[in-house]
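Reviewers of the previous submission asked for a worked example of the structure-prediction workflow described in the proposal, so we include one complete record here. The input consisted solely of the amino acid sequence. No template or homolog information was supplied to the procedure at any stage.
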Amino acid sequence: NSLNKLTTVTIPNTITSIGSYAFQSSGLTEVTIPNSIAAGMTFSVISVKSNAFSSCPKLTKVTCLSTTPPEAYSNSFVNYNGYLYIPCDNKDDYEIDVCWGAFKHIECIGSETVELTKDEVKVEPEKTEAIFSMPT
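From that input alone, the workflow returned the following C-alpha cells.
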C-alpha cells in the first residue's frame, strides 16, 4: 500500500472536504489543513468525514489553519493524544468542538505581538500583529 509510505501531507488549498477513509491506515505522522484564499475568495476545508484518518496511530501533529473549525466526527481521527495546532484567534471555537476539542494538546499559532520598548522586548500572546518601536 503506497499510503503506508506517506508520512506528511498538506491538503491542497482547493479541497473543501476530506472524504471518509481518505487516509485510513496510512503512515501519516503529520497533516496540514489550510485556510485558503483563491480568486479573491477565502474558503477552507469545511468537513473531515468519518474515518478520514482512522488507523493512523502515528499521526501526532495536525495543523488546521481554518478560521472556522471544519465539521468533523469523533472517529475522523484516531490519535487524540497528538498535537493540534490552530489559529489563536479561533482557539475557543476549536476547544468547544466535540472532535477538535478532544485533542489532548491544543496549541495556538500565528498570533504573538512583539513590542520593543527601551531595553526589553515584550511578547503578548493572542495578538495578531507585531509592533516594533525604537526609543529616541
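The chain is about 5% helix and 35% strand. We consider this example representative of the routine output the project will generate in years two and three.
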